[in-house]
Specification:
Two copies of one chain form a homodimer.
Chain A (H helix, E strand, L loop, with lengths): L13 E2 L8 E3 L3 E4 L19 E6 L15 E7 L7 E4 L8 E2 L12 E12 L2 E5 L7 E8 L6 H5 L1
Antiparallel strand pairs in A: 1-6, 3-4, 3-10, 4-9, 5-8, 5-10, 6-7, 8-9
Chain lengths: 159, 159
């Protein structure tokens, strides 16, 4: 993983030297298109109301699995943070004033680097969803999309 | 996968016959302990305020990665729905009155069967978190825990 070399440990950070056990396999269902080509360009946290339009492009056969999604305005998106190292136990994020355990942070560096975001669904264009509210790199692999659990809209409550 | 045999297709449901491509590997970081031993016993959706206490038991070396988590009251939990088939495109959930695309549902049946829940953190006991608000089977593999994105509590905003 050459990307790992781009993320050296900071002072006081602790990594495990155990190899990660492989327990389950993910299949990427598509790709996320955003304006951000480097990590430095990415906003700190997506702004659901003010951020730019982003695209969730689904691969066959998964585009058809979007049928009925138009009834929701808020979706939960899961994606694979493919450029992150996975072995840190204690991290020292910039401006945190010390270290914290990986699970006390939303850092992309985690044993299973899955990002989650709530986005606003603007429209569906065939096998693509146009949304607002993401903050990830262009080309990020897409793992899952679900209706927002927090907002039981009438159509969902009926189902 | 013998569990798949327990979930026959309902009328009008559509599955893909393409094998799932393997794109990334998950490593289970622990296991979830709940009172529910069968799917029929599981509640429909976890109730963060009224449900029973459940336990997130972290395996070594990940227990130490909890350091600092006590400052949060709401956590996002990701887990692997290990008993779900993964090939459905259109599903016909009971009481839905028709079919919907997989991504228009929060059904456990999805190409990447990752469940997400918001839980209330009651306390940490070493490498275990005691929480309220889950609805998954006892023995469900644990994939990730993060502070709740929706609740930028003071401690998190400072980091």
């Amino acid at each position: 993983m050459p990307e790992t070399l781009l993320q050296p440990l900071r002072p006081l950070e602790v990594a495990t030297d155990r190899p990660l056990r492989v327990d389950a396999a993910l299949t990427f269902i598509g790709v996320i298109r955003t304006p951000w080509k480097t990590r430095d360009e990415c906003p700190k946290q997506g702004d659901r109301e003010a951020g730019p339009e982003c695209r969730l492009e689904f691969e066959a056969p998964w585009g058809e699995a979007l049928d009925g999604i138009e009834r929701y305005t808020t979706l939960e998106v899961l994606y694979w943070l493919h450029r992150s190292r996975r072995d840190l136990i204690h991290q020292a994020p910039a401006h945190a004033g010390g270290t914290r355990g990986t699970f006390a942070l939303r850092s992309p560096i985690r044993p299973n680097p899955i990002g989650t975001s709530m986005v606003r669904l603007l429209r569906r264009e065939g096998s693509t969803l146009v949304v607002r509210g993401l903050d990830c790199l262009d080309g990020t692999p897409l793992v899952d999309v679900k209706p927002d659990r927090c907002r039981l809209e009438p159509a969902e409550a009926a189902g």
